[in-house]
Amino acid sequence: MEADFKYQPLQHSSHIRLLIVLPGEIEDPLFCVILHVGLDNLGKSGLIRFRDTTSNDIGVPDGYDALSYAWGDPKLPKKTMKLAYNQPCIADIERNRHLFANMSITPSLESALKQLRNKDMRNVKWADAVCINQADRAEKEREILKMASIYSSATRVLVWLGLTYEPDYDPPTMAEIPGDEAVWAAFGWFIRINQACTDQECHALDLDVVTNLPALAPSQQEFEGMRILFNRPWFRRVWIVQEVVLAKGPTWILCGKRGQRIELALNSAFFIYKYVTHTAQFGVRNV
Questions:
Q1: Whose CA is closest to 99, among 37, 31, 50?
Q2: H or E element that contains 9
Q3: How far apart are CA 149 and CA 37, in angstroms?
Q4: Most buried of 50, 82, 92, 224, CB within 10 angstroms?
């Protein structure tokens, strides 16, 4: 029987754990390596050189992506990822998969890490469920105090809404529109409406834009996609304000293989809320 992963304690008050996600295809098992890093080593640009125990470059890009996601329903069966520490060095560990131990994670985190994994290169992520020892109450209390620094030091913040179709959360669509197709259409509309706003030299999406350009109104499919997206559990989390507002790098909102800068998505959501509220074009009263 394979062993369960055991955490090594953080040796300094400024240290955090990062995940080096090893390359793989979407359907491959998830293998990650834990790295301890001092937040005080981060440069002004938010970048850090990652080294192994011999001070050699371990072959990952500078910086890390901080994940913002909903853990999901605790009643759902857990998934298993493979986890190890970067000792003696990551190259040796990568060649010897027997050094990895099992870690139980939520389906939400597994789908995020697999979808964001590169098939050819290692990449670095921070995810609270794994980078904080959830069984150590004292550590959890200490790490929560670092959350502002963790998100503000990240190269990017990636908001994971889930796969394009999540039957446990998604409401049924009207007119039998496939949910995944609707989500893809919604991301296309985010780009279209924001580009129109740029072309009109307006500083924010407003009803005047669609009044002058009625062809920009979302189709039924696009509207259904937005209804699915903004119904996802992430938008009901308490911590999202801190995680998004504190980000100094770009923040992306991701669903399956589609993604968009979060300011464009939220700008569009605010616009469609005002539009639907002030018109009866869609026959819908609430978004």
A1: 31
A2: none
A3: 13
A4: 224
What torsion do the CA atoms of 226, 232, 237, 240 make, to the nearest 10 degrees?
-50
Contact assessment for residue 112 and residue 69, using Cβ atoms and an 8 Å cutoff: yes
Compute the distance between CA of residue 22 and CA of residue 92 in angstroms, rounded to an integer. 13
Secondary structure class of 200 (helix, strand, coil): coil
**Cα 149 off chain centre by:** 17
Location of structure tokens 């605010």: 270
Specify the DSSP class assigned to residue 22. P
> pLDDT (tens digit, 9 = 90+) per residue, 36-89?
888 876 544 444 444 444 344 444 456 899 999 998 888 888 999 999 987 656
**Residue indicated by tokens 């790490």:** 143
Q: Tell the residue number behind the tokens 């580009």, with chain if given.
A: 195
154, amino acid identity: A
> Cα separation of 111 and 230, whole Å?
19
Three-state DSSP at 80 gives: strand
Q: Which residue has the tokens 């007119």?
A: 175
Q: How far apart are the first and last CA of the chain?
A: 50
Joined tokens for residue 14: 């400024």
In the numeric block, the tokens 């909903």 are attached to 70
